[in-house]
Fold:
Amino acid sequence: MGLSTGILDTIGDTAVVQLLRVAEGFPGQLLAKLEGFNPTGSAEDRSAAAAAAAAAAAADADRHAIYP
Structure:
């Protein structure tokens, strides 16, 4: 996770941390995804970004349409 040039660049790059103390003695890695660090604080950022992009594309297509 590096420096982003805008909020949309952070979508899909949810922080993941390894829980060392909680998983002590556990035979493997225990990881936690920190959805609260997403731009809107939820797991729905990707679907919201896709819906916004689709709406923008539809509006752009409609703007260039020729109606009889």
